[in-house]
């Protein structure tokens, strides 16, 4: 089946530790996105990448880093500089070059809790 | 800048009731409009979309019409079920090359048997 996988579903880390969230897609999509979701605040864009080896900051990039070495993969690192990292993180991908099919498809999410 | 405004929730309905969730937008150009649904503890799923004025998106009994004159994309369903309980997000896709989505804050729907 084609889709987006995120692992793990739940992640616990101690304060001050960096943590990397995995996102993989087999939809052959060029673009990938990372969002953060907090209760009552909707989705906020952290980073996005439209092509391999290139990525752009979203609205709340501070304290996060990404890489896009392969088309299928877009890992997100939550660094110790992120002041309030506990949240639900969602990865998405899209075929952004085709305006008729530019829908974003989402993974199941990773709930990160920093203790 | 571009923005999306959704009606605040939570919305609580009885099974078989009529549902409307209002969504209005501000945008330059000709954005595409989307409704996504999020079930508890899961990621978002596309519910329906419309890419130009007067288009009607529909799926699973839900409908929404792209109204450019009122800058609206209200979600409707004639008879809701308990399984429709979820959070619904309205979004628009910006014109241009980056195709970022601008999101509403979401509207929580609870349907009681």
Describe the structure.
The complex is a heterodimer of chains A (115) and B (113). Chain A is mainly β. Chain A is built from no helices and eleven strands. Chain A has strands at residues 4-7, 10-13, 19-25, 31-37, 43-51, 54-57, 64-66, 76-78, 87-94, 105-106, 110-114. In chain A, the strands form two sheets. In chain A, strands 2, 4, 5, 6, 9, 10 and 11 form a seven-stranded mixed β-sheet that branches. A four-stranded antiparallel β-sheet of chain A has the order 1-3-8-7, with no helix packed on it. The termini of chain A are far apart. In chain B, a hairpin with a 2-residue loop joins strand 7 (56-59) and strand 8. With 113 residues, chain B is mainly beta. In chain B, strands 2, 5, 6, 10, 11 and 12 form a six-stranded mixed β-sheet that branches. In chain B, strands 3-9-8-7 form a four-stranded antiparallel β-sheet, with no helix packed on it. Chain B has a two-stranded antiparallel sheet with strand order 1-4. In chain B, 0% of the residues lie in helices and 50% in strands. Chains A and B meet through strand 5, strand 9 and strand 10 of A and strand 5 and strand 6 of B.
Please work out how many helical segments of chain B DSSP would assign. 0
Order of helices and strands of chain B: EEEEEEEEEEEE
Overall morphology of chain A: globular
Secondary structure: helix percent of chain B: under 10%
- What shape does the CA trace of chain B take? globular
- Biggest chain-to-chain interface with counts: A-B, 26 and 22 residues
Distance between the termini of chain B: 41 Å
SSE order of chain A: EEEEEEEEEEE
What Rg of chain A do the Cα atoms give?
Answer: 13 Å
Q: What Rg of chain B is obtained from the alpha carbons, in whole angstroms?
A: 14 Å
Mean pLDDT of chain A: 91
Based on the model shown, name its key terms.
heterodimer; A: 115 residues; mainly beta; 7-stranded mixed β-sheet; 11 strands; B: mainly beta; 6-stranded mixed β-sheet; 4-stranded antiparallel β-sheet; 12 strands; globular
